[in-house]
Design a protein that fits this description.
- By secondary structure, the chain is of the alpha/beta class.
- Strands 3-4-2-5-6-1-7 form a seven-stranded parallel beta sheet, sandwiched between helices. Strands 8-13-12-9-11-10 form a six-stranded parallel beta sheet, with helices on both faces.
- Helix 2 (about 25-35) packs parallel to helix 3.
- It is globular, with a radius of gyration of 26 Å.
- Bound molecules: adenosine-5'-diphosphate (ADP), magnesium ion (MG) and zinc ion (ZN).
- Keywords: ATP-binding, DNA damage, DNA recombination, DNA repair, DNA-binding, Helicase, Hydrolase, Isomerase, Metal-binding, Nucleotide-binding, Zinc.
- It catalyses: Couples ATP hydrolysis with the unwinding of duplex DNA by translocating in the 3'-5' direction.
- Pfam families: DEAD (PF00270), Helicase_C (PF00271), HRDC (PF00570), RecQ_Zn_bind (PF16124), RQC (PF09382).
């Protein structure tokens, strides 16, 4: 049999023609090649990594239809809009359509007029739909947000379990490809097992996107920081995540009172209120979205310039997913986590509130602990993140995270470390951070006296510091691997082998000066102690005016077409135009993100702008 396998070169040509991108990203190339070879494929890439292209481009090269399983209606609509704008025939079927519209789309698919069809997983459970699908030539089923199949994931959806029976019931089994940003081993196992991927090629790539400047700020006045940041970031779109509805409402009201066009989103609002504010954000009518983690899975908005976490999220998976909504277009963007120890209490409370089995609970506490360690980490935050997900990275620090930019001097903390470690040792490694701190502080609290800890030689040895400062210091030692916490609701601090070396005087502890000495004077906006701490990610002033004018042209087009502006061209594309100043069609087509169809549809007003500029 002479099977024709499309080549990677063909794929690359289509990428240029439709998307206007000259090259695949590293991970995309491997995934596309694997799919073109007909292998089941699992692609793990961060939010903004470019998962859609991984199945959309192969869809163009394969005969018949690619069926995309997508969890959210808004997500489907966005993707289909974007595809149609580029000149690719795609459609979705979901509950917003009438029966007549659904039938029309199925007929179009039967006539071979569609390359991609998006549906929610629930649809696979409907008999009539399965029947219709078995009459079609389906060459690939692509499962987006595939972590939803796993109970360990954060968005478990029962109907994702219907994917595998559906795929295997088809007259000819298509290739199955699954995509997600969640890379933990449990979730990976579940995806392979529950979707029944057949001997899949697995690709984990690019979690550390180098356009993202990660920061953790401890000891800031959170509200002042946010007011200040939002005000100094002009019209740039951003998301502020808070843990509770109440905090969302508070921050939202404060921003509004200060004349900042903000929107809010949480589960306490009506469907229509939520939809309205999501739309307004997508269309750049409002600039800042204040939201709980209920917001975001459906957001493919590419020009989000910052994501600020008002509170620490529950785990690294959630953090990376949420923070990763910044800078999907590859432009420099900020991911700022405002940490306070109170956040730990909130997260523990949430774990306890949620009825679940012990095994799962233990797992959540463990993940929470790892999140806390990230917040206290003194080393490069990108390393910390990649290490967490087990992705290899170079030994070169990122240079732009808050740890890398931290200019405070390294000081010798060996003596402090010895005092703390020795106290923990004397307390027999059976108590938590706060009791250890009380003892070191020399507190008279009931528990201290009850256990007779006031007679320990380390009692009161750190009385010049506050208990809060002492526990912060202990947390830094935990994050740096000298100490470890046991799992569970009331974790106990234990010494690690490295701590024993310190106690024996065999290891010197060098650390950044503890937070409290510098943070107080630093005030808002990360203060002066951090190099380049203005969080300025804007371009030079000259391009800025051109860029602004291009944005206005885009806005007009977007309003005319009733699509979000980034679907016309994203910020990265406008940015490149504003530096290159293309004055011919050929020059325009060389700009990343300007494909042939888009050029024909939208290119002319931009071209004319540059021609008139000359
Ligand atoms: P994900 O689904 O992984 O979160 P998307 O598929 O939405 O990410 O892609 C994120 C952004 O990256 C989009 O704006 C997309 O156009 C852009 N992108 C994807 N692949 C490339 C590429 N090869 N070159 C340039 N930009 C790309
Ligand atoms: Mg996606
Ligand atoms: Zn770094």
């Amino acid at each position: 049999m002479n099977v024709h396998i499309p080549t990677l070169e063909q794929a690359q040509q289509l990428l240029q023609k439709y998307y206007g991108y000259p090259d695949f990203r590293e991970g995309q190339r491997k995934i596309v090649a694997s799919m073109l070879n007909g292998a089941d494929t699992l692609g793990i890439m961060p939010t903004g990594g470019g998962k859609s292209i991984c199945y959309q481009v192969p869809a163009l090269l394969q005969p018949g239809l690619t069926l995309v399983i997508s969890p959210l209606i808004s997500l489907m609509k966005d993707q289909v809009d974007a595809l149609i704008t580029m000149g690719i025939s795609a459609a979705f079927i979901n509950s917003t359509l009438s029966g007549k519209e659904v039938n029309e789309r199925i007929r179009a698919a039967k006539r071979g007029e569609l390359k991609l069809l998006y549906v929610a997983p629930e649809r696979l459970e409907l008999d009539w739909f399965r029947e219709e699908m078995s009459g079609l030539e389906i060459s690939c089923v692509a499962v987006d947000e595939a972590h939803c199949v796993s109970q360990w994931g954060h968005d478990f959806r029962t109907s994702y379990l219907a994917v595998s029976p559906f795929v295997n019931s088809l007259p000819r089994r298509p290739i199955l490809a699954a995509f997600t940003a969640t890379a933990t081993p449990e979730v990976m196992d579940d995806m392979i097992r529950l979707l029944r991927l057949n001997d899949p090629s697995v690709f984990v790539t690019g979690l550390g996107r180098d356009n993202l400047a990660m920061s953790v700020l401890r000891g800031e006045n959170k509200r002042d920081f946010i007011m200040n940041y939002v005000t100094t970031h002009g019209h740039q779109p951003g998301i502020i995540y808070a843990a509770t509805r109440k905090e969302v409402d508070d921050m939202y009201n404060r921003l509004r009172q200060n004349g900042i066009p903000a929107g809010r989103y949480h589960a306490g609002l009506s469907d229509s209120e939520r939809e309205e504010s999501q739309e307004a954000f997508l269309y750049d009518d409002i600039r800042v979205m204040v939201a709980t983690n209920a917001f975001g899975m459906g957001i493919d908005k590419s020009n989000v310039r910052y994501v600020i976490h008002y509170n620490m999220p529950k785990n690294m998976e959630a953090y990376v997913q949420e923070a990763g909504r910044a800078g999907r277009d590859g432009e420099p963007s900020d991911c700022i986590l405002l940490f306070s120890p109170q956040d730990i209490m909130t997260q523990k409370f949430l774990i306890e509130q949620n009825p679940q089995d012990e095994n799962r609970k233990r797992n959540e506490y463990k993940k929470l602990q790892q999140m806390i360690e990230y917040c206290y980490s003194n080393s490069c935050l990108r390393w910390a993140m990649l290490d967490y997900f087990g992705e290899a990275h170079s030994r070169e620090a990122c240079g732009i995270c808050s740890s890398c930019r931290d200019e405070r001097e390294l000081v010798d903390m060996t003596v402090d470390a010895q005092i703390i470690f020795s106290c923990i040792h004397r307390m027999r490694e059976r108590f938590g951070v706060s009791l250890v701190s009380s003892v070191l502080k020399g507190s008279q609290n009931k528990k201290v006296l009850q256990y007779g800890f006031d007679s320990l030689p380390t009692y009161g040895m750190m009385r010049r510091r506050t208990e809060k400062e002492i526990s912060e210091l202990i947390n830094v030692f935990i994050a740096e691997g000298y100490l470890a916490l046991s799992e569970g609701q009331y974790p106990v601090v234990r010494l690690q082998p490295l701590a024993a070396d310190v106690l024996r005087g065999q290891h010197q502890v060098m650390m950044r000066a503890p937070e409290h000495s510098a943070a107080k004077s630093a005030g808002t906006a990360a203060g002066s102690r951090r190099r380049g701490a203005s969080y300025d990610n804007g371009p030079s002033a000259v391009n800025e005016t051109v860029f602004e004018q291009l944005r206005l042209i885009r806005r007009d087009l977007a309003e005319k077409e009733r699509v979000p502006s980034y679907i016309i061209f994203n910020d990265a594309t406008l940015r490149e135009m504003s530096t290159v100043c293309p004055t011919s069609e050929a020059e325009m087509l060389r700009i990343k993100g300007v494909g042939e169809v888009k050029y024909r549809k939208y290119g002319v007003p931009f071209l004319e702008f540059f021609q008139n500029m000359e």
